[in-house]
Amino acid sequence: MVEQKDSTTKSRTIFNDLDASEENFDSGITEVDSVCMSCFKNGRTKLMLTRIPFYRDVVISSFACDHCHYVNNGIESANRIQANGVRYKLIVSDPKDLNRELVKSDFALFKIPLVNFEIPEGTQKGYLTTIEGIIDRVITNLEADIELRKEIDPDSCVKIADFVQKMRDLKDFKLGNFEVILDDPSGDSFIENPIAPAKDPKMSVNFYKRTVEQNEMLGLNNDENIEDQIVEKTEKGEVDLRNEVVQFHNNCPNCNAICETNMKLTDIPYFKSVIIMCTVCDNCGIKSSEVKSGSGIEEKGVRYVLKLTDRSDLDRDVLKSDEASFEIPEIEFFMGPGTLGGKFTTIEGILKDAREQLSEKCPFAFTGGDSESKDKAGRMKECLDKLEMIQNGHLLNVTVIIDDASGNSYLQNIYAPDEDPNMKIEHYERSYEQNETLGLNDINTENYQDQAQ
Fold this sequence. Notes:
- By secondary structure, the chain is α+β, with helices and mostly antiparallel strands.
- It has 10 helices and 25 strands.
- The protein has helices at residues 95-98, 131-143, 146-152, 154-171, 212-217, 226-235, 347-360, 374-391, 432-437, 448-452, and strands at residues 16-17, 29-35, 42-51, 57-64, 71-77, 85-92, 101-104, 109-112, 117-119, 127-130, 178-184, 190-191, 203-208, 246-251, 258-267, 273-280, 287-293, 301-308, 317-320, 324-328, 333-335, 343-346, 398-404, 410-411, 423-428.
- The strands form 6 sheets. Strands 1, 2, 3, 4 and 5 form a 5-stranded mixed sheet that branches. It has a 5-stranded antiparallel sheet with strand order 9-8-11-6-13. Strands 21-20-23-18-25 form a 5-stranded antiparallel sheet, with no helix packed on it.
- The N and C termini lie far apart (54 Å).
């Protein structure tokens, strides 16, 4: 059993909390000489490493040149790259959709297929804007040197003018509804869901495993990971995962310090084997756990529908995989795949983790922020209050839905081996999009050697 870390222990980190108080205004700011890219003389860059509440560690930079008065500001994420890439698809159908907040990282691909417009990955620095802001930025950049282009290349100038008009028509919905695609292999991009925590009917969010090429673009090592090495040792008989706990070094998900991760294979009755991983960081004191399937993706997806009729239903064991969604329709609460990661807990535990995620760790915090609308903050507070009532057993007769396209989630049947009168289990054929997210459409298990030749 791991002992609780002393509450007086402080995290040793170079990233300080964002603080606008006068005594801390100049703390943590580093100044360095750097070359001005406008006049190529020496300028001055200020760097501040800070932690933005509810978001992540960032490096804020500010450059100024005293010779030509050129200035440039930027912000970059200092966190580790996310475990999976993310792909957003949004149908923009009314002016309110143009006001959705959007974070585009350095590695994100932005596309509007209707007008054949694309911003390739790596061509722009990351920024926070809106859908309309991106369109306006494109129009402004294309019109910047249009008079000069008229003299150099009149034909291309006419094409650019036509495209600028098409972008204006797009923003005014003269071309009808249009689709926006934001694909980021680093997982650091984001499109706002204005009706959160309810499911957005206009937007789909898919998390995916990166390809070798994408890992190389991000500067990640494609060598065999730790789990694969342990599996290889297990097959050789060097490690007994069922009867011993395997320990290996890993990076802390909070402060990125080296810490220990414990891993063990265990069996869930009436289900299958799963791998439980637990990380405890001695540096910052954070504890995290994750559950992964001990077998492959199932032939069919699975959907559990449970009616909570008694306080004891909250104690049912739940195995939620990375690919599973969690929904309570009565309070319009929806938690998509990839949220909270894989967990082996109870229904009460998932509700507790969901509340903490929304109230404490949510980027663009819906529960505070001076830029948030009262309607959005009120809607989120109401949802958090209802989640707490369900968690405490004060609000029952609601439906819990766990939908897992990979088939690797589990919800305990307390009447097993008999049927549960309050729970329905449905096994279904996956759609093409679900298979694409799981990486199954490109897998070939028959005659692949002949095709390779």
